[in-house]
Design a protein that fits this description.
This protein has 79 residues and is mainly alpha-helical. It has one domain. It is 49% helix and 10% strand. The chain is built from 2 helices and 2 strands; from the N terminus they run E-E-H-H. It has a two-stranded antiparallel sheet. A hairpin with a 2-residue loop joins strand 1 and strand 2.
Length: 79
């Protein structure tokens, strides 16, 4: 699968559209888009306390794990 990413450089970090979606979802406490594999934008978390930063990282990690598990299930069932 080929992915085309649209992004910008912000604060020296490349920010992709999927990163923005995940970051905004976490900051606004709404569900992360189902198949999103974005990573949190570091600078967006600077205003949060350490506990909330860790919670955001946990939410991001769980989301990535769910997508990976779903992809693996789809792959193994298609064989």
């Amino acid at each position: 699968m080929t992915m085309t990413c649209v992004g910008v450089t912000y604060g020296g970090q490349r920010v992709e559209q999927v990163d923005l979606a995940v970051t905004l979802a976490v900051l606004f406490a709404v569900p992360v888009p189902i198949n999103s594999l974005g990573v949190l934008i570091d600078e967006a978390l600077l205003g949060l306390n350490q506990r909330d930063q860790l919670k955001a990282a946990y939410i991001n990690a769980v989301q990535m794990l769910r997508v990976a598990e779903t992809s693996l299930d789809d792959y193994t069932h298609s064989r």
